[in-house]
Write a structure and sequence with these properties.
By secondary structure, the protein is mostly helical. It has helices at about 5-15, 20-25, 30-40, 50-65, 70-85, 90-110, 115-130, 140-150, 160-175, 185-215, 220. It is globular, with a radius of gyration of 17 Å.
């Protein structure tokens, strides 16, 4: 599942002078994953020609490598796993919900914060004003999908645990490995577990982001030039 707002927020902290193109690039791999899942179109990162977007993509990968190792993230995923155990969901469905569900609920928590909303609004404005060179990727469908994400403010729907449970159900049902899926009748069960995780994230979201930023060593931070123009 995407955690687009989380990547925007982290990049804005580690690169305060980042352009909107670099910020969006740091979330672009998640957009590519969504496009692949919904439309069946695979776009390799090597196909991203814009230097700013490509740099953001590299930062995304580096950020994920640090974020996924954080003990606080593992703790949150384990707590959601515990909430889902004994509810009738299969082990595959529990695993498929626990990590992605935590990440998408994290996005909604960051978006509800002033700093998260500011960077989201900045990138949204740049995308809708065509200030980000999405055409350089060469796929009109992807460009339109990213624009719809911001036009419809889809990230805000993730603030509703029931909506997140519905999204998870739909996406897992669409996959070929049915062992990962859960029944429509089980959506309320998943919703209740997601509500508990949302409460935990209100306390731990920013500590998790701060720990991730602190763990981004010089090799990661050197991806970002020391001085960047503040405008695109």
């Amino acid at each position: 599942m995407p955690n687009i707002v989380t990547h925007l927020a982290i990049t804005a902290r580690v690169a305060p002078e980042a352009s909107s193109s670099l910020l969006l690039g740091s979330a672009l791999p998640d957009f590519l994953g969504m496009y692949r899942d919904h439309c069946g179109v695979r776009i390799r990162l090597a196909e991203v020609d814009s230097p700013e977007l490509a740099l953001g993509c590299r930062l995304h990968i580096a950020t994920d490598s640090v974020f996924d190792r954080q003990p606080l993230k593992h703790q949150l995923v384990q707590e959601l796993t515990s909430d889902l155990q004994g509810t009738g969901l299969g082990r595959g469905a529990i695993r498929a919900c626990a990590d992605p569900g935590t990440e998408i609920l994290l996005d909604s928590t960051i978006l509800a914060d002033k700093d998260g909303r500011l960077v989201y609004d900045r990138v949204k404005a740049a995308v809708l004003a065509s200030e980000v060179d999405l055409e350089s990727i060469g796929d009109l469908g992807l460009k339109e999908g990213i624009e719809r994400y911001f036009t419809e403010d889809r990230a805000f729907s993730y603030q509703d645990p029931h909506k997140v449970a519905q999204i998870m159900h739909h996406r897992l049902q669409a996959r070929s490995r049915q062992v990962l899926a859960f029944e429509k009748s089980q959506i309320p069960i998943v919703t209740e577990a997601f509500k508990s995780q949302q409460i935990r994230l209100r306390e731990r979201a920013w500590p998790l982001l701060h720990a991730t930023i602190a763990g981004m060593d010089e090799a990661v931070l050197q991806l970002i030039p020391p001085e960047r123009p503040s405008a695109d």
